[in-house]
Amino acid sequence: MRRLRIAALAVLALVTASSCGTGGVESVMGKDTIRIGVRTDLPGIGVRTADGGFAGFDVDVARYLANKLGARPEFVPVLAADREKVLADDRADLVLATFSITQERKSRVLFAGPYHLSYQDILVRPDENDIKNVRDLAGRRICEVQGANAGQRVVEERKVAAQLVPVPDYGTCLEHLKSEQVDAITTNDIILAGLAAKDGSGLRLLNARFNEQRTGVGLRVGDVEGCEAVNRAITDMYQDGTAKSLLKKWFGTTGLDFSTVAVPQFEGCS
Amino acid sequence: MTIVQPTTSPPPAQSQTAVPAPVVTQHAVSRHSVPGRVRTLTGAVLIALAMLSALLAFGSGSAREGLRVIGHDSGPQVVATAGLYLGLSDMDAQVADVLLMGSEYGERRTTAMTQYEKRRTEANQALLDAFELADGDPAERLTIQSVLDGLGRYERLAGEALLLNTQSDHRAGETPEAVLRVYRQATDLMRLELLPKAYNLTLESGTIVRRTHDEETAAVRLLMLGLIAALVAAGGLFVALQLYLARAFRRRLAPALLVATGLTVIAGLVGVAVLGQVLQSIASAKRDGFDSVLTTARARAIGNSLHADQARYLLDPARADTYEHAFLDKSQSLVYADGGNVEAYHATLAKNGRISLGLLAPVRANIAGNFAAYRRFQEADGRMRALATSGAKPQAVSAKLDELAKSFTAFDRELVTVGERYEATFTKTVAAGDGALDGLWRLAPWALGAAAVLIAAGVWPRLREYR
Questions:
Q1: Where would you find the membrane-spanning parts of this chain (chain B) (predicted)?
Q2: Which of A139, B92, B194, B427 is the most exposed place for a label (fewest CB within 10 A)?
Q3: Minimal CA–CA distance to B440: which of B47, B50, B51, B64?
Q4: Which residue of A has its CA nearest to B60?
Q5: Long-range CB contacts (< 8 A, 24+ apart) of A154-157?
Q6: Is B304 near chain A, with CB under 8 Å?
Q7: Of B199, B321, B340, the CB nearest to A133
Q8: Is B145 on the interface with A (CB under 8 A)?
């Protein structure tokens, strides 16, 4: 009966094929090649390699997801400011570029995942014993990196009276920390992990884990089917151990706490 | 369909495909003779009738499948997995409350422990239900199994924290570090591993429902088109048969054939109408029922977990900032109002503006007084936090256990009521669809069977004239 029904549907579908399309948004499902937006400016997360390729945690996750969707990934370099635009302009089908899920963004971007949770955290000198969490930054000096709001979040959101020392970038901030011009660096934990690894002098990540950030996969609004398929692929990535091995591969030696690597709570696709 | 062609005698018509060959074979003669044509036409009518029956059967089969999955399979699964999340989340919330109370609040502590045990039983039952309902989905079963394993570990850690808590005999709000160290492991396991998995299971049921809905409605729509085409074809063939019989045998219309035509057309039209109605039922059960039931279930889950974040905020000062941010984040995902910290969020919320973002925004029409209960709950949260930051810890704990708990219960109860209303809509529309299909099944086979008998009755006497 079921086979007969399928046959009947197939015949009818052929007859009416031209009369009705699927309508709505074009899905990432069923494509041979998926264009994926990734960062090129974040060590460990997404960078250009010498041979013009792409490498990093987000890039590896993107490869895994594309493979699960049965497609070949084609990487599109994006900067933080372009992430929504590449989706809207149809230059990318998916965006994996430290794309934080926010309520405000959700009206313009459909988020699958999150595939990773990161937290704002604190990096200190090896001999620093007085700073244990964000409260202990009161009265201490931290960097205010141009264009980043991590320092302000400590002062305004957490209402901790830290002294902000303006610096142009995280590299300078790192030098300031080592020469004791600032007492701590605070930002996203995986950026801190990258800095600590690059430095190699034993700077300590506190694993203080405040301000959770959910990093999701951006899709065009309306591609519910694609979003659900990505969520299933992320579930697989955690179940088959790929997530843990990728985190270890990119951040294993950085002092980040990997005692709990579990699939994050998804946003939902509708 | 023109049949008449000027030819020789009795068989008044020749098909366009008639052989141009000079020699007419015996076979061709019999096919083009009057009885041969009558048989061919009758056969075509019966085939059309059979197709009509088959399409009706397939169409109602697809519709039935759609109703089954949405109404009787994944619908209940959503309820089961949402129950799992609530049970788990509330277990951890009760543990946090008990640790917060210390050796004070005697009776309330007993109530919290009873609630913990009750939730544990519920969560275990929900896990068993979910496991059974996830039959045939290995990934889902793997998830459920890992939640089951994790729950065992959680209970051990929670038990240890509760024991240390009793032994330490502390005042409310002054939980010792030794207890907190164990509780942190327990709550991390719950919040970071078990609850996300339970939540994703609920989402996955939603995915199954959406897929089935899309597939089956597309199938039913297609089969409806086929049904209409078969109906037109059957009608045309009936007319052709009537006309041919009238011409060849110089009679008026055959009454039996006329009745058969009527029955077929009625059965076909009723079939199309019923399938259309069931399509609407499925769409409405999904949109007005299922989606909203899912939304309120998810909202209750998030609500319970942000309420627990309030207890954790008071319980563990070293992590107060983490829990406060988690509370704000979840609050904003539920009912969005602008604000980078909890105070700013409360201030925006107090302006009583329109809620257009967040999980509950789509069902805002059903939430009384523009989220009045939710606003009262958030106001109580503001007062509790003000007490905590001003150093009045015992008062803050008392505010959490009294005013805050009450206002949360009021908000949660409202969500339950709204969810029940959607569930009623859901059950009603699924039942309406089932009823319409049952009616079709009672009527259509008889009508089409009778039509076939009547065709035979109408044609048989004519054929007998040639014996």
A1: 40-58, 220-245, 257-279, 443-463
A2: A139
A3: B64
A4: A5
A5: A154/A186, A156/B340, A156/B341, A157/A211, A157/B325, A157/B340, A157/B341
A6: no
A7: B321
A8: no
B221 within a domain of the structure (yes/no): yes
C-alpha dist (Å) from residue A270 to A110, A224, B429: 8, 7, 22
- Contact, A197 vs A174, CB < 8 A? no
Question: Rounded CA gap, B268 and B237, in Å?
Answer: 15
| Amino acid code (one letter) for B414 | E
Query: Which of A4, A236, A264 is facing B139, going by the closest CB pair?
Result: A236
Q: What is the pLDDT of residues B422-465, one digit of tens each?
A: 888 888 888 999 999 898 888 888 888 888 898 888 888 887 87
Work out how many domains chain B is built from and give that number. Answer: 1
Structure tokens that stand for B355 in this block = 């809620």
User: Range of B258's domain?
Assistant: 34-330+337-464
Pairing label, strands A141-145, A163-167: parallel
H helices within A21-68, ranges in order? 57-68
DSSP state string for A96-156: EEEEE--TTGGGT-EEEEEEEEEEEEEEE-TT--S--SGGGGTTSEEEEETT--HHHIIII
B114 is a domain residue: yes
R_g of chain A, CA atoms, integer Å = 22
The DSSP annotation for B75-88 comes to HHHHHHHHHHHHHH
Residue A215: which region, alpha, beta or left (left: phi > 0; alpha: psi -120 to 50)?
beta
Name the residue with tokens 């319409």: B436
- Hey, what domains does chain A have and what are their CATH numbers? 27-118+213-251 (3.40.190.10), 119-211 (3.40.190.10)
Residue B21 located in a structural domain: no
Q: What tens digit of pLDDT does each residue of B330-388 get?
A: 999 999 998 888 999 999 999 988 888 889 988 888 888 889 999 999 999 999 999 99
Contact A224 B210 (CB under 8 A): yes
